[in-house]
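Hi P.,

Sorry for the delay on this. The queue was packed all week, but I finally got your sequence through. Input first:
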Amino acid sequence: MGHGHCGPGQAGGGACRVGGRYDGVFGPALVVAVTAPAVDGRATDAARRDIAKALGVPLSSVTLRSGAASRDKLFTVDDAVADRYRELRDTPP
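Then the structure:
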């Protein structure tokens, strides 16, 4: 399970950013910055897609567990990518 701190509109130039650490409400979190607006779940969907891409897993492997309307989200991902998740989280952006 991984925690992500998602900020809509934080990345520039139409790109997303997945990487870096944020000490959030669920503990150490992977920072995910998306350009999608926080409207109708678009930012959450973009974050989910970007996490899947960064981890190299199918979109179906990343599930939002809580935080649909919050910047602090809890996603479930396959334990097989735990090392890659920690690498992304613990490497400065």
